[in-house]
Description:
Elements: H1 3-33, H2 38-64, H3 70-86, H4 88-148
Helix pairs in contact: 1-2, 1-3, 1-4
Amino acid sequence: MIAVDQAKIFLIFIIVGILISFIFDMFRIVRKVYKFTDIMIYIQDILFWILAGLILLFSIFKFNSGSIRLYLFFSVFIGAILYTCSISSIITNIGTGVLKVLNTILNYIIKILFIPIKVVHKIICKLKNKKFISNNNKIKSAKHNIVSNKAGFCRKM
């Protein structure tokens, strides 16, 4: 392999390391905004490592003809370190803020969409309660008629 090709592949895998670190930051952002149980965190970790492995394998086959060399992993590590030391905290802070704003907007939209459902629910409850009250009055009046009627039958209910 020519040295120029190796340098090109080295730079490509530095970019792959940056990409994998960026994806890791996306998982971190979601974890900062939403609270998860331990099992969900384990599942997220497994998903991240599967995704990182697939990206790495795809890159190895795409850019290096499936040939695994030690310098590939070294360049991925360098890319991850460069990203983490340079812009990871900025990306994490911006991403957390954006996700919180989107979450607030989504909650507001959901509240607006549920207003008609709440109104219909209140109307149904009022009609149900009104019907129940009128049924109770009929039952009370029927009991009164039974008690007051010597024959023991209701004339009208």
